[in-house]
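Write out the bound-state structure for MRU.
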Amino acid sequence: MLLGKDVPRLTVSIDIPQAVRWHAGALRIIDQTLLPAEYREIDLVDVDDVVEAITRLRVRGAPAIGVAGALGLVASLGPHLDLSAPEFRARLEESGDRIRKARPTATNLAWAVDRLLRRARLDAGASNSELWSSLLAEATAILEEDREMCRRIGEHGLKLLRDGSTVLTHCNTGALATAGIGTALAPVYLAAERGLCVRVLATETRPLLQGSRLTAWELERAGIDVTVLPDGAAADAMRALGVDMVIVGADRIVANGDVANKVGTYGLAIAARHHRIPFYVAAPSSTFDFSLESGDRIPIEQRGGDEVRRMSGRQIAPETVAVYGAAFDVTPAELISGIITEAGLFKPTEVSTLRSRSDNAEV
Ligand code: MRU
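---
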């Protein structure tokens, strides 16, 4: 984790939903496919169910799937402590491999699973139950670090906001997407906590509607002023509604500062540049992938065409029409005004300095 030294601590208590946590030997998540109509928590222990929940977006958002992948892996091993030590370790590797492949774009998922697998290799001589306890401690640390990173992102991002600011955002990057108060929405939560009035314009985010279903739900629940826009209205909103800045999250940030995020982000960055509106990306260090030099190397998840052809089970396009199913796009660094991390605000060209900081911190 990258820690800024000059960050004043805030003592805030915001009532936010807990998207992902450990509960009585299980991974407990809010089933986000049901929101906003129904709030339901589900407990997962079986590796098939963990993979299904991540793939189906019951739990989603880059940091949240990292935490869910780690806790889910530990939960799935709990019923198998009486295997022989080699069988137990083989199961850990095999289940870890399945979970890390459940979604390809958000680097946080592979990062979190790999961290557990590294922990296991360091604990080479441990018994199954010792190893399991050590993995649970590591997964819990990932959750707690994520919570802390969200708070620090919020504190740094808060410096960009004023009373009366209007922020346009995309997808869902709040509590539902992390273990804490979110990434792009973290400054908004802290502004609200300080009594500042900040208005959020949330794009609907077709096809799965993370903006209208999830961002609108969690911000309304917190008493924050939120307006939902059809995706196609975003450029017009920038022209007509006095947008002060765009803040989005990220699924992967690579060495040259290019950013993969929910499809539609690239178009928002182009529209923001045209309207001279600053375009910020907020993300924790677990979202950085310094191994890739540029955004064209990022694996982009392709999703089934029925997510576009159908809505709530109803057909809304011809059944056999071709669909472009990219779930993410890549925004080039040159369109990004700044990247807000737990260590502060950086220019995309400074991403390489974050690499050396994280090497020092052994992220
Ligand atoms: O497909 P999703 O809903 O997992 O996509 C989520 C996003 O694109 C978010 O913007 C990103 O993961 C950052 S969440 C803090």
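---
The longest helix spans residues 128-158.
Residues 57, 60-63, 106, 171, 173, 177-178, 182-183, 210, 249-251, 261-262, 327 surround MRU (CB under 6 Å).
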